[in-house]
Every structure is written in C-alpha cells, then in structure tokens.
Amino acid sequence: ITDKLTDITRQFTGKNRITEKNIEDAVNEIKVALLDADVNLRVVRRFVNRTIKDATGEDVLRSVDPGQMFIKIVYDKMVDLLGDSRQDLELKGPDTVSVILLLGLQGAGKTTAAAKLAARLKKEGRNPMLAACDLVRPAAVEQLSVLGEQIGVEVYREETKNAVKVAKNALKLAKKKQYDTLIIDTAGRLQIDQDMMKEIVDVREAVNPDEALLVADAMTGQNAVEIAKAFDEEVTISGVILTKFDSDARGGAALSLKSITGKPIKFIGVGEKVEDLEPFYPDRIASRILGMGDVVSLVEKAQGVATQEEAEELQKKIISATFTLEDYLKQFQQMRKMGSVQSLVAMIPGMAGKIGDGDIDEKAIKREEAIILSMTLQERRNHRIIGPPRRKRIAAGSGTTVSEVSRLIKKFDKMRLTMKKIAKNKKLQNQLMTQM
Ligand code: GDP
Ligand code: MG
After folding, report:
1. Counting C-beta atoms within 10 Å of the first and last residue's C-beta, which end of the chain has fewer, N or C?
2. Has 108 been labeled as part of a binding site?
3. Where are the alpha helices (DSSP H) in 124-193?
C-alpha cells in the first residue's frame, strides 16, 4: 500500500495545476490500494467520498499549490480514519490499583503485550504487577513468568484452572503490596468461542478493569476488525493493541478498526522484544502509510509560509512592476523557512525554469541576502539610488565586495525588466500564475 500511495503522492507533489479529473483518477487509485490492503469496503467508500468532496472544492483547485493541498487532504482523511489523536491509557492515580485486562485470540500477542506494557509503565514511573490468568495453554504461565523476570516485574501465579480466582487474588495482593497497576493476561482460543467469552466476562466482572484492551494481530487484516467487533459486543473493550504491525505491510486493520468499532488503537506492537511497543499516533501512522513523512511537513510549511493572499500580493507587485529588493529579500526569508533554495528560485519571477537543479549555490544566496540586509530601507525600496559611495558602504557592511553589490543590483534590474515584459504579456502572465 505504501509503495502505491507513494507513487500517487509523487505524481502530485509540486504539481501546479490539477483538474477534477486528475483528482478522480488519483482517488480511484487510492481506492484500489486501500482495497488491496484489505481495508473494509465501507470504510473505503466513506474515505473516497470525503476526499473527493473536499478535494474538488474551489479553494483547492485554485490554491497556491493544489497538488500539495490534495495530498494534505488525503492525509487528513487518513488521520481521521486512524482515530484523529493519540489515545492514552486511562488509569487511576498511584494511590490505588488500576487494572488492565488483556484479551484476544490465541497467538495474537497477549502475553507478549502484557510484558511490553508492564515494561513501559515501569519506565514511566508506575509500579506494575502481572497476573497469569491464561490457564488454558500449559506453557502460558511459565512464558509470562520468564518475561516478568526479564523486565523485573512481579508475576502473580497460582496452581489452579480458575482464572477468576487468580485474577481476584492477584488484585488483592496488588493492593496489599501497594502496586499501582495490575495487568492481567488471559487465555485466548483459536477462534471466537463461548467458553473463552464467558471466562473473560467473569474475570471482567471480578476485577472491574480500567482498561479492557483487545490484543489483535494486524497481519490478519479485516479479520482483526471482525474479531474486535465480536469481542466488543460480548465483553466491551476500551481500546486495541494492534500487534505485529512490523510485519503488516498493508495497514488494512489499522485503517478500518476505528471507524468500524469506534474503539481507539492505543498501542502498536512492532517486534518480538519487550521494548517493541509504541503508542499509536494516527498522524505518524498516516504518514507512514502514505510513505511521505517529509511530504506532509513540507505541505504544512508551504501552507504556513505562502498563503494565497501573499501569493496574490506578490503577483500584483510583479504585474505592476513595483517589486523591490525588500520583496526579494522577503522571498529569501520565506523560502528559507521551507528549507529549499530550489523552490525559492522557482518562485522568484522570471527565474522559474531558467535555472537547472545543479545551478543553485546556497552560499551565493546567503551573500545576496547579506547584501540586501546591509541596505537601508530606502535603498531596498528604491535600488536606483544606490550609487558608488553607497555600494562601498553596503559591501563593507555585508562583508562582500563592491563588485558583488553591483552584480546583485544589475541582476535585480534585469529581473524587473523581465517582470515588465510579463506585465505586458498576457500569455506569460498566465504561465506565471500557474507557477505560483
Ligand atoms: P498470545 O497467545 O496472545 O499470548 O500471544 P503471544 O504473546 O504468545 O505471542 C505469539 C507470537 O507472536 C510470539 O511468537 C510473539 O513473539 C509474537 N509477537 C507478539 N507481538 C508481536 C509483535 O508486535 N511483532 C512481532 N513481529 N511478533 C510479535
Ligand atoms: Mg498468551
């Protein structure tokens, strides 16, 4: 899915003009990619409709950079799907015992998640205890004990087949020993099974957990979503730990879970080791799925830096040829915020398309900036007044030479000439508008 979406992202990056048809085509490709990733069909439909609705709006098609706006919309819709914002555990204060109940099918990663969670909470300064309530699989208690030892967390165990009894006794002991969190590992089955459900409901009633987290295997895709639905109906869950996220190239479960079950993903398992548990950040996962960590921040920067009004303002100045060195300097500074000299040059009127990739010299640009900074406001607003004495002063002030100052002024003069030509040429003007 990531490869596919990265392709789409790339098609749109830096595109200055897109049409409704472009958007529909891209959305269709995204639809196919999502279905391939085993995202629930209902979720895909909703995603597609919302994206098309937002992306074909006037302000997108007419914006400074519609391609980037489109990517941003896709990204935002994806963040919505994934759950909007980070949902942390809801635990009580350290003076009482908070209970976290883990449930899910066999092999989903419950026992591993119990240890991972304990290690994490311990690191955060809480004082957790583990309870081994999977009494169905012979080796399960031992597995948790080994993990507990490894992370230095006490594991409560009992020789019995009664999970409710173990859970109750564990909670008693946790209170007595002043632990502040009890994490209960329970037995799963190979598939949804009434015995299992009954046992979990009984444990749940016995310990009244603050969090009942479903541990679900991301690799099972839509199946994980069905399982979450079933567990929620029977036991009521408060959230999900999505395991084996490291092996799930498709992201389908993550994308469908929230909208189908209404329950947030709270953590993801990203490996077999105890430290391989991460909080689930919808925005980061959306970037990961879109394969565009950088693109998103670039879009945000672009939106923050060059708003439509600023672009229009600049356009007006260009057309009326009142563009000054002051504006020129502002362009440098705005573009520096975006971190790309390449796009800076592309935005400077008359320079777009004239300079190839290798031609830009960041150092030279810094020197030009220094020169303009050494000018008075009056000089910046009217470069014609800058005669030889002023040039000498500016060169000294900026640590450059008189010939460099003269070169910049000459270059700027030429640029304004180009602008005047543009101002008289409707066709060129249109070209320029689309460049912006
Ligand atoms: P349980 O039956 O639900 O208790 O599942 P386990 O905790 O015993 O885990 C089953 C298998 O999945 C084990 O081999 C774990 O090492 C593995 N596992 C659990 N979580 C993850 C994860 O986030 N990533 C990967 N790659 N493997 C995991
Ligand atoms: Mg287990």
Report:
1. C
2. yes
3. 140-151, 163-176
